[in-house]
What does this fold into?
Amino acid sequence: MDRQPRAEFDLRGYVRVLWKRKLYALAGLVLCVVPAVAYTATRTPMYESTATLFVGQQQISLQDVARGLASTSLSAQLVKSYADILASRTTAERAVAENGLALSPGAVAGGLTIEPVVDTQILKVTFRSSDPALAARVANAVSTTFVKQIQELAVPPPLPTTTTGAPAATSAPTTNEASPPAVTVSVVDAARPPSVPASPNRVRDVALGIVLGGLAGVGLAFGADHLDSSVKGREDTERLGLPVLGVIPKMHTGGAEVYIERDPQDVAAESFRKLRTSIGFLGVDRPIKTLMVTSPIAGEGKTTVATNLAVAYAQAANRTLLLEADLRRPSLHRLFGMSGTDGLTTAIIGTCSISRAMRDGVVPNLQCIVAGAIPPNPVELLESAQMAHLLELVASQFDMVVIDAPPIMPVADAIALGRRCDGVVVVARSGATPRERLVETIGQVERSGAKFLGTLLNGAKPSDSPYEYEYYYAYRSAPPRGDSVTARGERGVIDG
It folds into this structure.
């Protein structure tokens, strides 16, 4: 079966990703906010002071209205030209010389900003400096110097004289030759020392850093989630088209592995009981009596799952056998403090009986058969007729046989054994098992002819499947531990 992940995300899904990858989101925020704060903290404050000039005309009489309108149009056209003159080095040199500025002409010209106000006859002269008083002084000096320049340029030339020193006669002198200049420049608002620096704008810069950091953090969070190919919760696994039997939260077993007996009212213990119920529903038509628990690779927690699931069956008054079929890396004998000599391998080859290989488990109704001596040919033993006969025998003696099998990917042992069992459960570690590896493992199980029951997600965090535990956490908050009658009553309801 071709199983490809389906991209199905809702708003809650995005929130879960951000919460799960909150460290990435925080890193992106810090990477942008810290430089922004450092940048604003280390920059020298710069002040801007502005003087306002008006390019206009002299007052005229009513008879010169036409000339006045023409000069107004002329002054508007001259604003851009005057802006270039104001920004020139010549104006800067004269302003320095006439006002005794302790700056070079290049520094004055470099710090000036000349801004013609659109559709007006106004020029704004702005100087930028780290000294607010100097900024105002330079802006005013340049403005007054420029006004003088324009006045000099607008003075009409002297009339020509005769050899006797008398003015030469002209033909038809006009009124314009003797009139004052039509276009003038005046300072309408002198520059004043500013009290607030123009830069750095700390509020703006830090706010921009927060916005960019938030965007970067979200990008990092979703990028990390996209690059993480592991299964992360029920929804992620179901998008692969895989049935999920249950979700086991991350638990600290303290090396004992039998968590359900130590804390029977915990959410992890309840998860194993729910798993037991789910498997029971799958065996309505044909009861499941031999259940193999395996995983794609080692380290997924299959032994812990098999052990606690067997305890859950035993606690429900089922005669249960925990059978260790991992003949390459057995561990049950260490977990239960049993001898590893007699076990499954010796029972298969006939050097000891099945009853001799059995040991009492940690709870009533639970028996265990450890792996026994490690054989040189595990696959041949698990595929043998003796193994098939042993499974039939223990299935007739017990209500449930839980088999801790080796992982699927490294060796063929589990594939050989799975065909002889009533069902196979594949354990995947949430946030660790790659999707491709899980899909390939289940494909091998199905192609072998074994009955694949579903996937069990082990070691899940609340953020991986947040809705798995909401009801149970609210339900569990009712009875105190000290009331043994209430506790037994609650446990009976949960088990039922």
Remarks:
- The CA atoms of residues 295 and 427 lie 5 Å apart.
